[in-house]
Amino acid sequence: MSRLEQCFAELKAVSKTALIPYIMTGDPHPDVTVPLMHAMVEAGANIIELGAPFSDPMADGPVIQASSERSLKQGTSLKSVFDAVRQFRQRDAKTPIVMMGYLNPIEVMGYQTYAEKASECGIDGVITVDMPPEEGHDYIEALRKSGIAPIFLIAPTSTEERIKMIAEVSDGFVYYVSLKGVTGAATLDVASVADKVETIRRHIDLPVGVGFGISDAQAARMVSQCSDAVVVGSAIVKSMAINTETSIIIEEVTTLLKSMRTAMDE
Question: Which domain holds residue 65?
Answer without folding.
Answer: 3-261
